[in-house]
Recover the amino acids of this structure.
C-alpha cells in the first residue's frame, strides 16, 4: 500500500525554524518528483515546493523562496522541508504528495500542522 | 503566474442530478510538449485532497466514471453526471504546466 506520512509539525514563534519530514512507502520513491502543498486554516490549497526525483532541481513559490528548503534522501525514502524565518502567514497544514503529470499516480499524506504564533 | 479562476464558488446540488464546475486560466495551459496539465482535485470534509482528473480529461484510478473533465487552452470544466452523497466537498482545479503550480479558489459542493 502506498503511504506518505508527514511529521514534525509544531507550534513555533515568528522568526523560528522547523523541519518537516515525509516518509514514503509502497512505491519506488527515488523514481518520482515530490511536492509540498499547504492549506491555511479554512483556506484553499497552495503549492509550496517540488523537488526532482534525483534532488538536482527544486522549485518554490515566491513567498517561501529563500526561507524554505526542500530536500530528499532517497536511501531513506524521505522528503523534507526546512522552514526558516517563519511568519504567521506560514501557519497551515502541510501536505506531502507524490503526483505525476501524465499517469494515474497521485498520493497525498495526511498533513502536518505548523502554527506560527508568539 | 497562471491565475486559476473557478465558478461558481458555492454549488448547491441535488442528489442524482448533474453538476458542473468551470475553471479558467489567465494563460494557456498547453505545454511545450503538447500536453495540457490541468487537474481536478477533490477534498472531502476532514480528509486529505486527492486528484480526480489529470491532463484535462483522464480519470485517476478508482475515480467513478460519473466524473468527467473537458476543455482546452484556458477554459475547463468538471462535470458530475449524477451527484451522490459522497461527492460533497471542495473541488479545486490545479495547473502544473507552468511554475509556480497554481490552484483555483475551490468550489464548495453541498447537498
Amino acid at each position: 500500500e502506498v503511504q506518505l506520512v508527514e511529521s514534525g509539525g509544531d507550534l513555533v514563534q515568528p522568526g523560528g525554524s522547523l523541519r518537516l519530514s515525509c516518509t514514503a512507502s509502497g512505491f519506488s520513491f527515488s523514481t518520482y518528483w515530490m511536492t509540498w502543498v499547504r492549506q491555511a486554516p479554512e483556506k484553499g490549497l497552495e503549492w509550496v515546493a517540488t523537488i526532482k526525483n534525483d534532488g538536482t532541481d527544486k522549485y518554490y513559490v515566491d513567498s517561501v523562496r529563500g526561507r524554505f528548503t526542500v530536500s530528499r534522501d532517497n536511501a531513506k525514502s524521505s522528503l523534507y522541508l526546512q522552514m526558516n524565518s517563519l511568519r504567521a502567514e506560514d501557519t497551515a497544514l502541510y501536505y506531502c504528495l507524490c503526483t505525476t503529470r501524465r499517469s494515474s499516480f497521485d498520493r497525498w499524506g495526511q498533513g502536518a500542522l505548523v502554527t506560527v504564533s508568539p | 503566474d497562471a491565475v486559476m479562476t473557478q465558478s461558481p464558488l458555492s454549488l448547491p446540488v441535488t442528489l442524482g442530478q448533474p453538476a458542473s464546475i468551470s475553471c479558467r486560466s489567465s494563460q494557456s495551459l498547453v505545454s511545450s510538449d503538447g500536453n495540457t496539465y490541468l487537474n481536478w482535485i477533490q477534498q472531502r470534509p476532514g480528509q486529505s485532497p486527492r486528484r480526480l482528473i489529470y491532463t484535462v480529461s483522464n480519470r485517476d484510478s478508482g475515480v467513478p466514471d460519473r466524473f468527467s473533465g473537458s476543455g482546452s487552452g484556458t477554459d475547463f470544466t468538471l462535470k458530475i453526471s449524477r451527484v451522490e452523497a459522497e461527492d460533497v466537498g471542495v473541488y479545486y482545479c490545479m495547473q502544473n504546466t507552468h511554475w509556480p503550480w497554481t490552484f483555483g479558489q475551490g468550489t464548495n459542493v453541498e447537498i
